[in-house]
## 1
Amino acid sequence: MPTAHIFAQMGEKLTFHAETQSFLPSLPEQSQHYIDPVGGARGVLYMDACLADGKASAHDAMADFNMHKHLDLPRPAVSPAPIQGFERGKGKAFIDFQNDVTTADIALAQREGYGHIELTKRYTTLGMGTDQGKTSWTNGLLEMLSISDMKAAEIGHTTYRPPYSPVSIGALVGTETGQQMTPIRRTPFHKGFADLGCVFQTSGDWLYSRYFPQPDETMTAAIKREALAVRNSLGCVDMSTLGKIDIYGADAMLFLSRLYCNNFATLKIGQLRYVLMLREDGYVLDDGTISRLGENHFHLTITTANAGKVWQYLKKAAMVDWPELDVTLTSVSDQWASLAITGPYARDLLSALKPDFDVLPAGLPFASVRIGHLYGYPVRVFGVSFSGELSYEINTPSGYADALLSMVMEHGKAWNITPYGLETLDVLRIEKGHLSIGTEIDGRRTADDLGLGKMLSRKKDFVGRALSQRPAMIAEGRQQLIGLISEQNEPIPHAAHLSDTELDQNGCAESLGFLTAAIYSPVMDHYIALGFLKNGRQRIGDTVWAHSPIAGQSIRLKVTSSCFYDPEGVRYRA
Amino acid sequence: MGNKRWPAIIATPEMRSSYDTVIIGGGGHGLATAHYLAKNHGITDVAVLEGSWIGGGNTARNTTIVRSDYLLNASFGLKNFALKLWGELSQELNFNLMYEPRGYVDLAHSDGELEHFTIRANAMRLGGASVEILTGQALQDCVPELDLNSAARFPVAGALFQPAGGVIRHDAVAWGFARKASQAGIHIFQKTPVTKINITKDKVNSVDTPQGRINCRQVFISVAGASNQVASLAGLDLPIHSINVQAFVTEPVKPALKTVVNYNAGLSYISQTAKGEFVLGGASDGYNSFARRGSFARIEDVLARALQMFPFLSRLRLMRHWSGTADISMDGNAIIGQLPIDGLSINCGWGYAGFKATPAVGHQMAELLANNATPDLIKPFTYDRFANGAEIDDAGAGPYPWHH
Amino acid sequence: MSHVPDCRLPDGGLIDRNITLNFSFDGIAMQCYSGDTLASALLANGQHLVARSLKYHHPRGIVSAGLEEPSALVTVTDQYGSTPNLKVTEVVMRDGLTVTSQNNHPSLKRDYGRFLKLGGGALSAGFYYKTFLWPKHAWHKYFAPIIRNLAGQGRVDPTPDHAHYDKRRKFCDVLVIGSGPAGCAAALTAAQGGATTILIEQDHILGGSLLYSQDSIDGLNATDWAADTSEALHALSNVTVMTRTLAFGQYDHGLIQAIETGQDGDINRAIMWKIRARKIILATGAIERPVVFPGNDKPGIMLANAVCQYIRRFAVSPGTRAVVAVAAEEDRLRAIAAMQDAGIEIAAILSPGDQIISATGRLHVNAFTWKNDKGQRQRTKCDLVVWLDANRAYICPDGRKADISC
Amino acid sequence: MLLITCPHCGPRDESEFSYGGARRIWPDHDANLDQTETAMQDWHQTLYLSSTPSNPSNPSGPLTEIWYHGGGCECWVEIIRNTKDHSISNRQKGHAS
């Protein structure tokens, strides 16, 4: 039997050759073929013919490459072979030695209707051992031929698949084991924060700062301390994992206004805007900020989780969908280190860092951006707030990350500056009802579901606008984002589902939505949660059940607005 | 066990010129529908037309896993119903499908991910399924072979555990349903592709095959990887993309893993068959393809993840891999039910999630075909949900089929 | 310690008799030479019985000399730990291997598994689908675990694997897979024509069937020609020769994936190569087809080409008294010549059309019964049956002369 | 494992790219602002359905599709690939930023 496995693995069927009673690969006719079987692999059996075949094939290849030395040599014919074999007596004879498949098994499979060669294989396990039928499947086929009225060409052969012979999984994985499986990304502040006692957490490719425990401090205690420090004084957090895009061009404004659903045509140089982006199908894809640095120059932030995805999406829009637009995109995510200073004293700290620009409320109001220097180091300062406190995201070229961090820590001492991590960041944003990718923005929510329906401009077209109007997406009865507080101020079980009824005797209940986040709010000294609830905004003030059968808990929660803390936004505008 | 007494798995009758119902596709779903039409509704004037051999599509090429751990009600409901049916089927069909509820373990790699799993687990509990969230020693006890201590790139924070999840002998599913349906008098034809679906005044009246025309009252299409092609015979366009999905097995070894385990930092799922092979699978190849052969990049990726869970696998050898065309819809969920043409219904878009739902689809579609009304469990899976914005998107990945 | 017979021929073969390697099989210490495979090493020590089959636990011997080996699977323990399910024909011998048989209890010779009659019937195809249906949960709770334990061949070593592995890439104009006559000719021609060429060979030396051929090429005997060609290829700067490398799959757009197995002293136990070629020349030869007859699975029944290879390349005599059932005349003569050179007595030679009644013997074939063309029933004692059906493998008929000038 | 020729970087392995699906021609932007129903139908047709006559997105045959060369120049590459056998026709188009 020709060893044509590697030829046939590409889906080429072998052709039955009656003279030799074997399946042979046919010679490729088109240049699409990469492979050329020679010698025994195509049924050429004799030494001289094999030598000639190998040589001719090499010349064919050289002809394909237009190499000048090639000759046009004839390919030898398939060698004839005698077809008379041996008769056999009665009794069970083995076909597949490994799986103990006998002639009787093949006959049984035929009798029971598993006549197709694929069914015969599966029913009898013929050729399914570690040898993958190298010595058995032709005999199996011939056995089928001898007892059925099918012809060999009709029966055909089972699909050839790699590997030709079993191969080491260790080698297939190579060096990508343990920590080396995928690269680890660290932010420019990694070492600085590690020196400050940071506990890191793996999430995606990144190592995030999670929290900064003091000696013998639990994570819960650390989060409470960090959160209160931000609310009452000053904290700092690493924001470097955000995606950051530089956009330049005469059509940059048009480009962005097609992609983002807000109306920001009035955005002035030096201002920034919270923006929302939909997918083509009208569901929310991402949120972020657009800062206008110049007439045709913008700086865009993308959430960490979506940084790669949205970057690709922007590139596609610019390059494939609207190549006529004059816009140039540059990803600067790794070029800028980003540190947010957050809390009532954030402006005082900024002043202490010797800025060469006006940082007074009139000079640097909320939602503005300034390009300048702190202590001579180049920075871009963005007046944005995820925490709800007065806050500035300071971007500096990554190489200056250490310098920026030590300046901030040194001058922040005056207000007992407290570095914090993802856990506290999450507590602060939940208190404000700010959204997080993957939890609230989970790929199934409309802007209105998230309470952001007003952000959709009615004056322009944008990606996702048309399909966001589909009937079921604007219908009554959708789940909407709401806040929830524990009536008895008891801990709220994570991941609980919301219901109007108690659990029935089987422990079941109708789910009207679920909690996306449940925390203890240090500043409110209360247990609060965010969640989705059917018709949620109409139900503010109602009390609902929160069931977590996994935790064995069912408690009553009161439905509130999704913003628990400073709903008027006085603090971050201070 | 006198196997000589077992007749042919399916009869080979003469094809009639007319049947009440024609089922296009002799895979698990089509054959299950035939079985339940006969068993639950007494309807046997049915022809199942299979272009190749029964169970030769995705029923023959999957990782044999059954489970129902889905967040969204619609997805959970159908698969959990299937799980109940799987438990009864071997006896019902008098054919051992080798259902082994060895437990399904879905690993989470961060506290945040575990919280998402808990949302899903709570949804399942509220819907009446048995499920646990396991961490630490409880997880180690459940999967003793799992490496929780080594320097893994993505540490394991915990897992969702569904005890009724497990494995089933995939080929036997098609054979068992086919045999029982055939015994009930339903005609099953292999190597009988449908070349045309004839429609007059928005109503189906017949199908053409190389063996002749079959007149019929209704036609049910259940052809997985060929959905677009067959639907186009009726002039219909489907929100379906065709992608290549692969799975592979190691050489067989003595039992070394009881449960079915899924790794989530890059998809990789693994179980050990009754024959001793480790079966592994992962995400799709990630691009449209009808070539039915896999990209090796996916295998390398899945194996690297599998080694994170079970480092001893590096000593084993990959024996065989296979791949097939999966039809995946724009929200990653199935399209089941009636089409805008009278008498025409479809079941498609399962991607690589269809095997586990086999009996539930059969059961529900039989009810639809018998009563001309859509039963509750499959109501959400309508063909027009994409036009009206009622997607069932468990992954939240949006209209990018290769991401589901 | 049992007596270990010596079946090594006094001279010949491509083995280095100056380097003796020690190994053990099921606890019995054995020796072989550098250049042996585990299969030739076991045969040299008279060990034909190496495994038990999966379902019936029939005794199984060595049938072939290549990767097609169906059931001679063993567990091999070396410095990396134990590896199950290795074909004895694919293991290149190194010093200090511990080889154990699989899937038997308590021993290879006295395996209780052969009495296995689950449910009282024979384990025919489709058996499981029809049985263990009742009571309802009995399959999962009782039967499935028993069957899982019976299945599965070898046992995986659960200890950490400390071996290093790597993945690498190569690119070339012409990739030749296989270094028999066709592969060698193709590689030499392409390389001399100026194409960057890679030659992959799964064996540890180049030559394929040339290594046990009695032919002559360019006035040299085939084995010497193979050695010369190997040297010539190594000397060319545009050629990469990769031995111990198994090309296992072809993927889109000219990609071949291959596994190179490390030898003693290599940093990597194995390396996966991804090789993109503009043209792939597949010179993988052919596989012999066994003859189907009652009792054909007994140890001592071997493929004709394999017998030639064991005798000529490894200088091992796989038996003392042989029955020859080879359909094609040239192959038959060639096998007979090899066996005569090895001093094996030819008990009988069958002609195509003869009816094979059966081979008998408990742990090894000991007799052979057939009917000749006159319908006469005949029986002879033997310890070797050499066999090959009509549609055969690549065979170089003795005495054929070829000329290759590129 | 496909070999995709990037017009900027040359022939590169599939693993350097991510898939963008069929190259779609979206309904005209800035038009139909008031005709929601028409816009919805147009977008539904283009995004969801797979056999748009002028621009089929799931053919069993040649498919005009886009790939993102994230492991290289970070540009989108347009190729015509036959989904039946993965052969890529020569017309490869790069999109410049």
Note: Chain A is about 25% helix and 25% strand.
## 2
Amino acid sequence: LNPQEQRELQSRMEKKQMKEFMNVYSNLVQNCFNSCINSFETKSLTSREESCVMRCVDKHLKSQTRLGERFQEQNAAMAQAGGLPGR
Amino acid sequence: LNPQEQRELQSRMEKKQMKEFMNVYSNLVQNCFNSCINSFETKSLTSREESCVMRCVDKHLKSQTRLGERFQEQNAAMAQAGGLPGR
Amino acid sequence: LNPQEQRELQSRMEKKQMKEFMNVYSNLVQNCFNSCINSFETKSLTSREESCVMRCVDKHLKSQTRLGERFQEQNAAMAQAGGLPGR
Amino acid sequence: MSFLFGGRPQISSEAKIAQAEAEIDMVSDMFSRLVNSCSKKCLDRDYREPDLNKGESVCLDRCVSKFFEVNVKVSEKMQGEASANAAGGSPFGI
Amino acid sequence: MSFLFGGRPQISSEAKIAQAEAEIDMVSDMFSRLVNSCSKKCLDRDYREPDLNKGESVCLDRCVSKFFEVNVKVSEKMQGEASANAAGGSPFGI
Amino acid sequence: MSFLFGGRPQISSEAKIAQAEAEIDMVSDMFSRLVNSCSKKCLDRDYREPDLNKGESVCLDRCVSKFFEVNVKVSEKMQGEASANAAGGSPFGI
């Protein structure tokens, strides 16, 4: 890719990153809602539900960071070993 | 956005709406199929399965209308209160 | 569609096909991983897990081929009968 | 991006292609949903053998039939609602 | 494809439209996730009747409330983390 | 939209960028599937504490390893099938 093409790719990547960030956020909302909210006796979150959501978000963020690190390592190792067999 | 930009946004919104309508439709097909069809002794729908599908579609459409109304209300209330804290 | 338009549609279809092929592949990986890998006592696949994955891929590929054939048949039959009632 | 170029010919080309594309997308989306539903309903989850057994095969065939039937029923129903509400204007008259 | 045409006016038009589009996409994505979650939590799975019963209706209303609240909590939390980490630069300052 | 402009340079630029983009999309799709699968397999669903405990951490690490291995096995298998069927022409020779 020449510099102009790289700039274009770069700008597409930035859009994708924003989209992916929003996706991570929305997944957190949905997953933690699904796991922590199971009663609809009240209109507002109970304090128990709220703290479950907080721990859930924390744990998922830490989990994603860890998974991202391992993924990078494995990806790098695989690239050095010559990529996926088919490439 | 100037008028020309608004027209462009408008036209993209129309495409999105068509896409979303198709998505609502496909979700109905899939959800009601998954919920109502559990036996494959026959090639055609039994009358029991068929009426389950009809009730399922009805209920989901009503549910979506209701959820849409509440969503709009909450969204309006939140916009007035200054939006999501981060905005 | 005139020939130029057909060429454009053709080229978009090719991109879609590549994307869909990748999607079939990724679904296989995810489904067979989810079905066959349930213990994390070890870092590597056990031989039991590995052969489960192999059978799982085989079965899903055969299943998709069969579903594709039936889908085509039904689609053709429906097109002859005048399409989905709404079209 | 049609507004950057203007001119009807391209717009209408683009629109025709977009419509053909939308129909193909619709069919292929339906197929992937069918694959998802029918695999879950019909395949033994333990994968003891690599081949489809008789039961799975028959189940898959019937599953496709029933999925199409549900598709038709839902489509008829939504058209009924649309014409009841709007007295005309089918949601599928793309 | 802006690099093919260059020129700031189009780029900035495109950028403004893209931003408006992104916001609409975000809201509509949230709505479809809410529909998915609240239908699962609130609707009886056996579909014995076509209408929402009292219990389902109340459940749906509260489900929307709670979904919004979770949304706010998660958003606040992620901003807190972001400002703790970076001392500035909110992830939502689109 | 290449047909609107014609000319090889743009087409080939566009194609090269599209290919780079497709590879990145593929990797990021795999990552989000891995996150989905490994979170479900490894995280305690009750969220009693905000930190990963020892068991969850080890499970996540091994989960990534196994997910990659499955990826390689499936890829090898599909190439085997492809070359058996077509005697050449790998599905991954993007």
Note: The mean pLDDT of chain C is 91.
## 3
Amino acid sequence: MAKVGSPSEERAGARGRVPSRHPEEGAAGAEGRFKTEEMILNVGPQHPATHGVFRLLATIDGEVLIDADPVIGYMHRGYEKLVEQRDYRQITNLVSRMDWLSGINNELPLALAVEKLMEIEVPPRAQYLRVILCEMNRILNHLMFFASFGAELGAITPTFYAFREREDIQRVMEATTGGRMHFGFFRPGGIKEDVPEGFVEGALAGVRQVIDRLPDYENLLVGNEIFKQRTIDIGILEEEAAYSYGVSGPIARGSGITMDVRKDEPYLVYDQFDFDVQSAPNGDCFDRFWVLIREVGESARIVEQAIEGLPPGPIMGKVPRVIQAPEGEVYVRCENPLGELGMYLVSDGDRRPYRLKIRTPSYSNVSALSYVLKNTYVSDMIAILGSFFFVLGDIDR
Amino acid sequence: MAVDEHRAPRTTESDDARRLVKARRPGFGIGLLKGMAVTLKHLFKHNTVIQYPDEKQDLSSRTRGVIALKEENCTVCMLCARECPDWCIYIDSHKETLAPKREGGRPRKRNILDRFAIDYALCMYCGICVEVCPYDALFWSREFEYAEYDIRELTHEKEKLSDWMASVLPPPALEEGAEYPGSPTRAPEVADGAAAPVKPVQAEASDAAAGTPERRGAQAAPLGTGGRPADAGAPKEAKPDVGPVPGRQAEAAPAPEGAEPAAAEAPPVQEEEQQAAPSQEQAPGPEPTAEDHAGPGGRTETASPEVLGIQMGAEPASPSPRESTETPSPEVLGIQMGGGPAPSPGAGEDAVGAPEEAETRTPQEGPDPEEVARLQETPGPNVEVPNEEPKPTALDPTEDPKEVYEAVLSDQLAKGSSPEVAEARAKVARVKAERGIARNPGVATKEDS
Amino acid sequence: MFDITLATWQILVIKIIVILTVVPVGALVGGYAEHKVMAHLQHRLGPMYPGGFHGWATTLADGIKFLYKEDIIPAAADRKVFSLAPAAIMVPIIMTYLVIPIDRALIVEDLDVGIFYLLAVGSLSTIGLLMAGWSSANKYALIGALRSAAQLIAYELPIVLAAVVVAMLAGSLSLIDIVETQNWPFAIWPPGIGFIAFLLFTVGAVAEMTRVPFDMPVAESEIITGPFTEYSGMRYIFAHMFAEMGHMVAFGGIGATLFLGGYQPIVPIPFLDFIPGVIWFSAKTMFMIFLFLWIRPTFPRVREDQLQKFAWKFLIPVGLALVLVTGAWVLYV
Amino acid sequence: MAVIEKVKLPGPASWLLNWSRKYSLWMMQFGLACCGIEMGAAIASKFDIIRFGVIPFPASPRQADLLVVAGTVTDKMAAPIKRVYDQMPEPKYVISMGSCANCGGPYWDSYAVTKGVDQIIPVDVYVPGCPPRPEALLQGVIRLQQKISGENPSEKWLGHTTPIPVIPEPGLAGGV
């Protein structure tokens, strides 16, 4: 296993890893122990813990996972090729399905890229609405994370509670955009149509309900001693390792990296809002979970501020009838719920992109898995997979 | 809006760090008890399950459940089929030539819709077809219950699609601060003030149209009754009801008197409304470039004869269509709200019905073929499209397939590929040779020389 | 009571028939209760349509369906062991029902060493789990079987210690005697001792049933129901569903008998005597079952090594200390 | 189980077998993509698919009756799906959920996507939508239950079911 800038094995052992029993690595330890045999366990592609079709080739020795090799590509749909055959409006609807938990966040970089190429000015109302919708989508995504993480650790109830809250927010999203998961709402230049009456109340109510119920969640999981045992000091991803694997988003922030595109390189109107970048220093499963749960609160704060400052006005900038990005190339990055989502758009002046390279957060995040999974227990593998919240569609595209 | 009541708690950074340290401390079972309290609390809470077949959610009108077709509005312009990313819309039509309306006029052609089917097994529910439809023939309905045992049954024909029109809701009112598309003024009072700019247009239109009452009557029936040709006889009964409808109805009132029952039974198809053209020339259309996104503004003028038809013939006793929820005729709403957010306001984006074109063309004629071709380079399923089959780049086989196979095989084996890989590559090369595709440019030129 | 004299074998047949009906019915009712209680704890409704009224027949439908579903034995499996394992799991569970006193006279067999019998029989099903896991020729099943063997042995001890405490307090190993001695249920009196013993028993019972939070051996999201991964049809329902539910009902009954006063009224007031013992017993059993069902959706599961540490380093020392304290209580109070 | 396929079952027995299968549909969740999340929503507390006796617990295909293929089936994933289906014991049912599983959906022109799960396994009910709302899946389940109640168990067992006209149940029929 290539270790890019990883800390020494001793330090990893000292930070909660199982001491290595692999004969090649710890030859000294092999004597005087039971002679054990390795077994290759094929986890996935259809396995309840892999939320999706993710395959992990695990070499296990008893309960200890010696080596883990993620195999991806089971959900590869050829996005980057497909978008070359579609015009921008059709792509908006397609990339929404890329990371299915954060549809509207995927549409945003595309819209921003086209706007940047075409030099379209987006009216403030559209920008505010974009922020609101993006942040609500972020809450949806994080709730899903909460649900799946609990379920993987064996606590099935959080799933049910989280889905109930998701439903409330999804209702508002549906009344606004027409879709529950795939919105297809952003257009180069603005948004598709203005929000319907009752949007503000609905959004506020939905977001506040989540905030109100957060203590319940914390009681169910965060404060739970068993949960703490299962997550604290498990699956540590150190700061330097996180850097070298290109990890971004909540997982990087859980390793103490205060990195957030919304703060570092503000797009839309994020620089007008008061919010914090949540981070935690330890880099274990608990910290990753902690950061995600805190981020729900931050997103709620942004939604409230944006609703407060929502200006009246048009929702579309001056755009030509047919969107044709002029020749050129542009890279736009946004903070997806799972990390940095970048789109590199090359246009040859057609109605379709010449090339669209998508840098998805999950893909980079998941590359750190085999490093983190090494020398852990099989049960911890589940906790780590859960805390590395990834979406298969986002990895494979 | 009282935003401050409930604001999400703001925490400082050191606060967060302290809380995290506290949360990471090992507990002594209190956390377990708290968790049990949470679940126990929910045992006694009122359940919020939506017991689906017995009770159903009240879905919003924008919900993308199923696409309904208002058959009368469809002019077979094919925009939807061509814009569909999945190509799941199938349209068949034929052209009919009708006798000229007046002595010496040119014969009219019109498209008759034979088939309009959507394959819902393939549809990705993106709504682009609804968005691009320039004549408001497609709407989103909230229905979602159409699972089938056979995939072929998921392709629904126009009869079924028209049935779904019954469940289409009027578009929602917009949030405070929204700009209603097509309105010259900003802000909320738009909704009420919208009638003003529209009014003269309608007056003109009604005057112009009054000369040909029979046609107007014919049109009123199918449109106004939400697409039910069976109700074509409605204008007669509807006449007395026209009076109470306030406002602009007054100008329109004289028109239906001339509507003859015979004309009312005419087939429910769109007719050319040549008389409407002069009225549109006088219409103060907004600047096309500036207001491009607000296409329905343009539609206000082009659609006005229809609108009048509806209001005269078929909106019996609905003084304020905005409040009536069961009338699925968005044109009326559109007018009342100032060109309003009809279910497909985005039509303006491709804006075939934008004012510029409307001045030179009549609304029911369908878009100019050239215009459509210019707009839509994407070929549609029902149009002559270049074949999608992969075509060989070179038409004549230049190499002997067998030779190529042998050559590549030995070449690969010599290069050190495993026998399987070598064989696979050789097979690929043979297939290419059979189809006349040069293996790679280098090889081809070498052999040629 | 009745003036009918029956031959011994006739009595035996009747007893067998009774037990063979009680266990599946108990399992079905337990399964239904699990569906409904869990659903309501999770803010859901649970089965509503099967059978009409609140889905009462849902587990019945499960039972009938599984009886005639295809029975797959994997090609690589050890056929004989694979087929026998469900019986090896199920029979000990059925056997536990024999000694639980439902009322003063309603007991299949009042053994003098009732508690001893319970503990001895209760640990037998481990063999069945091992058989199932090993013979399935499936890696997940193997991991599950090994985990369950380790776990069941570890958690047998806290139950034994808790039972020892009860036996010491009652001064007898017969379950009828244990119930009769409880003026106040042992979970309440003697103060502290009984309650801790009750907690020990509950934790041990949950682990013994391999339910959350101690369900590592059958963790669904991890090793896909462990030893039962390859089981289908009738064998599955006997090996897993009936066994788990039967186990739960049995442990509910045992808990009610040992700690909650069995068929006796919950408080020793003569006024309450008019309520038949069966009702008291059922109510207490239901309370125990509810406790098990309440724990299940609330907690995440404990990791295998943590689970072992918890048993050996915490529960068993506490149990041993408790035995000492109980001895002191019995001798000096 | 050879009895069922040889003997012509009397009416009540057929009814009982159909009834038990209908209300005990253990559901193997094959959440592949977006539809998997909506399937989760259908299971969760707002819609609660367990109300119909559809039990989403088995993690192993050996105990499942119903396979819900929810999401995009890629060519790489087709083999595992086929395998999971083969591992399920008879009688088994398949619901194809969403446009991708029905016939490729948005990825109809993708080189990596299987255009419809019915190319690899037989499908009983197709639920349209992209993704279908949770209620749409529930309606699909209801339609499947209607189908089951009209089946001949012995034929189903042998694997060649002749389609039987379905009598809509007044209580459950989600009107189409």
Note: Helices of chain D lie at 2-6, 11-23, 34-43, 75-87, 98-103, 134-149, 153-158.
